[in-house]
Design brief:
Layout (H helix, E strand, L loop, with lengths): L1 E4 L5 H10 L6 H17 L1 H12 L9 E2 L1 H9 L3 H19 L6 E4 L5 E8 L2 E5 L8 H14 L3 E6 L6 H10 L3 E4 L2 H10 L9 E3 L4 H10 L4 E2 L7 E6 L5 H12 L6 E6 L2 H14 L6 H11 L1 E4 L5 H8 L3 E5 L3 H5 L7 E4 L5 H6 L25 E8 L2 H17 L3 H12 L2
Parallel strand pairs: 1-12, 5-6, 5-8, 6-7, 8-9, 10-11, 10-13, 11-12, 13-14
Antiparallel strand pairs: 2-7, 3-4, 4-15
């Protein structure tokens, strides 16, 4: 964990150098992913099955690679009822939030008499990647599937690493209405969804976070399919004054640190004594966590405490451009309204980031690695396309056509000019 004081000389350069440190990079990942993609493209299902056996040590065939309806029902039945109730509660809130995002079609006639507008249409098919590994993520399934359903996507195909399918994930699939599930993970899953592989039909877009191999595969396959974003290790910034309970803030910082050893948690406060109390609280809480290994490594290697005036916090947050930022201060809107770059903002002492991960209703698939400077979290807009509509009658075309001729000739495109002039000459 690093300590920074914004009042000391050299702070800006030192803090920027800290933020620029790479987290979770592996030079060998991209080369391995390129080989996996090439194999799946050339061999289809045979490559997927071979890679699954080698990497995941699970033997599958064209029948067992899919999860049938009976397996989904039986697995979901093993999920404890309180968890099933919580999933239903979360799904309802997520659906209600995303329904409000649906945009309207529009058509109008402008002053030249040209009919203009746009319409929105849903994607035909989407692949959802639901991670396995360190933990089961039924919430990720809900966050990816429900906006796609609200958008009107016809087919939603889920891929998740093979092995035991967690009852909570299958229960989430039931709640979200996802019936097409494939036991395949990693780069081979992304390639199978992009190109198709045996019974796995190709999709138009792939969404959902995954490990470095999944991210590298999405990067390489962008253009073959659409993607949502390139997810990196999780991040949180907590802006807190000394009136908070240090244990609350410590828990918030650890809530992201536990995701991954490469995750990053940063505290910004104007109270040095409070900062020390939070550090002590982290030391107390860490041994109590089943995820202490990942959380300890994250806090040790990538965590930070920044002493700074609270009025300077929005500028620091914009510099970090974090996935999540909490403002645990009095009148949090005053500071939060000044922030331009953040995936999600959580306001007040009783709004921990964890509420957004599960039940607030907003989406928890958010930009990482400073991508909040230019991108947004997952939404209905990721599953729809906008098509422009233009209609001219003879009078409207007569008003616009001459400018088309001049511009086309200026660009050296005679057929463009002819396309307009031939109508003007014979109108």
């Amino acid at each position: 964990m690093r300590r920074f004081d914004a009042r000391t000389p050299g702070f800006a350069a030192n803090f920027r150098a800290f933020l620029d440190e790479r987290r979770g990079s592996d030079a060998d990942v991209d080369a391995a992913v390129a080989d996996i993609i090439a194999a799946v493209k050339a061999e289809g299902l045979a490559a997927v099955l071979r890679l699954t056996a080698r990497i995941d040590r699970v033997e599958l065939d064209e029948h067992s690679i899919g999860v049938n309806a009976g397996e989904i029902e039986a697995g979901a039945a093993l999920c404890p009822q309180p968890v099933r109730d919580a999933l239903a509660f979360a799904a309802d809130r997520i659906r209600r939030f995303h329904v409000r995002q649906r945009p309207a079609d529009l058509q109008f006639t402008d002053e030249a008499g040209v009919e203009l507008g746009w319409r929105w249409t849903a994607l035909e098919s989407v692949g959802i990647y639901v991670p396995g590994g360190r933990a089961a993520y039924p919430s990720s399934l809900l966050m990816n599937a429900i906006p796609a359903q609200v958008a009107g996507v016809d087919r939603i195909a889920m891929a998740t690493p093979p092995g035991r399918l967690e009852p909570a994930v299958l229960a989430a699939a039931q709640v979200a209405g996802v019936t097409e599930i494939w036991r395949v993970g990693g780069a081979q899953a992304v390639a199978a969804l992009a190109f198709g592989a045996g019974p796995i039909a190709p999709v138009d877009k792939i969404v959902g976070p995954g490990n470095a191999y999944v991210t590298a595969a999405k990067r390489r396959l962008y253009g073959v399919v659409g993607i949502d974003a390139l997810a990196g290790p999780s991040e949180i910034v907590v802006v807190a004054d000394g009136r908070n309970d240090p244990a609350w803030i410590a828990a918030d910082l650890l809530s992201q640190a536990e995701h991954d050893p490469d995750a990053q948690s940063i505290l910004i406060t104007d109270d040095a004594g409070f900062a020390e109390a939070v550090e002590r609280a982290i030391d107390t809480l860490l041994p109590q966590l089943a995820t202490a290994g990942a959380a300890s490594a994250s806090w040790r290697d990538h965590g930070a405490v920044v002493l700074a005036a609270l009025d300077d916090a929005p500028g620091l947050v914009d510099l970090i451009a974090p996935e999540h930022v909490e403002f645990a201060v009095e009148a949090p809107e005053r500071l939060a309204d000044q922030v331009r770059h953040a995936g999600a903002i959580f306001l007040g002492r009783h709004t921990p980031e964890a509420i957004g991960d599960y039940v607030a209703g907003s989406n928890h698939v958010l930009p990482t690695s400073r991508a909040a400077r230019f991108s947004s979290g997952l939404s209905v807009f990721d599953f729809i396309k906008r098509t422009s509509i233009v209609k001219c009658d003879a009078a409207a075309f007569a008003r616009l056509g001459p400018a088309v001729v001049h511009l086309a000739r200026a660009e050296g495109l005679p057929a463009h000019a002819l396309s307009a002039s031939i109508r003007l000459d014979h109108g």
